[in-house]
Amino acid sequence: MIIEVSNLKKSYGPLVAVNNLSFHIEEGEVFGLLGPNGSGKTTAINCMLSLLDFEEGSIRIFGKEMQPDAYDLKKDIGVVMQEVAVFHELTVYENIDYFCGLYVSDKLERKKLVEEALDFTGLQEFRKFLPKKLSGGLLRRLNIACGIAHKPKLIFLDEPTVAVDPQSRNSILEGILKLNKEGSTIVYTSHYMEEVETICSRIMIIDKGEAIATGTKEELKSMIHLGSKISFDASTIEEAQLEKLASLPHVTEVKKNGTFVTLRASEENGTLESILAFLKAEQIPYNNIHSEMPTLNDVFLEITGKELRD
Length: 310
Ligand SMILES: Nc1ncnc2c1ncn2[C@@H]1O[C@H](COP(=O)(O)OP(=O)(O)OP(=O)(O)O)[C@@H](O)[C@H]1O
Description:
Layout (H helix, E strand, L loop, with lengths): L2 E10 L2 E11 L4 E5 L6 H8 L7 E6 L2 E2 L5 H4 L2 E4 L11 H10 L5 H14 L15 H13 L5 E5 L7 H16 L3 E6 L2 H7 L2 E6 L2 E6 L1 H7 L4 E6 L5 H8 L4 E7 L2 E6 L5 H11 L5 E6 L3 H9 L6
Parallel strand pairs: 3-8, 3-9, 6-7, 7-8
Antiparallel strand pairs: 1-2, 1-4, 4-5, 9-10, 11-13, 11-14, 12-13
Helix pairs in contact: 3-4, 3-5, 4-5, 5-6
Bound molecules: adenosine-5'-triphosphate.
The site of adenosine-5'-triphosphate has 13 residues, from strand 2 and helix 1.
Protein name: ABC-2 type transport system ATP-binding protein
Organism: Proteiniclasticum ruminis
Pfam family, one: ABC_tran
């Protein structure tokens, strides 16, 4: 087991930021911590890194208790923090070389690793640039290169894609999967459910410092019984017809907002067909019909009663 957190509790004065948090992360996982802003993700990471002390619980990394002076554990950990932390007077190359040098003293070996990190983050052509000449997305890529150049076994990435352009975002996400393929276990925090769904093998959803659900995205979605969502535009549909729709097999909910009708179905198979057959039989004109599987936002909404997004 790479990480084992048991009953972690951390407060800032009267505010309990993380409460009774327990989870484990196995080697090779991309583990996602998904929660809205202020839900305690960064606090949990900082406790795992022994950057913060905590009142209750225990944290074991690589099978050993994590301590502020556990340098033997820390050398195998890479950290990419939310705030970009690079030296503004050093070039892109020199920054990566500096951070890599904290772990790798052999010059030749380090040169190879820095070149690989430049390739990996697509920063080769910017190697001589000072950070102030980089766009926000490139600066975040530099932040990542500095955190991962020494090829750590375990990498923490805290919201690495906040405020980056879509191209850099995709390149960051692809890069994380590549690091994972090359053998690193990843802990990834985000409040973007799409990212977490795309790259994480297992996800813990947190809210107000507490874990509300943990599992693969399929497991999380099967915890709720929302099934798929089917929507269409039907300006002439009548109240009595909406009631009939609600009584079709597997339809669990029907809502109308303006001309837009949204149904929830507990079963994917055959439901869309029976809705289409009903609309045809009742001669109800409709447009833009589409069906969506539930998202992690639906899971969050069902459990907490609020949206994941701010
Ligand atoms: N140093 C601090 N002192 C007091 N309160 C803090 C401190 N750091 C965080 N908090 C509070 O603790 C709670 C959890 O914050 P934390 O930063 O861990 O959440 P988060 O999920 O990482 O959110 P974000 O994505 O916005 O960083 C929030 O209510 C935050 O305001």
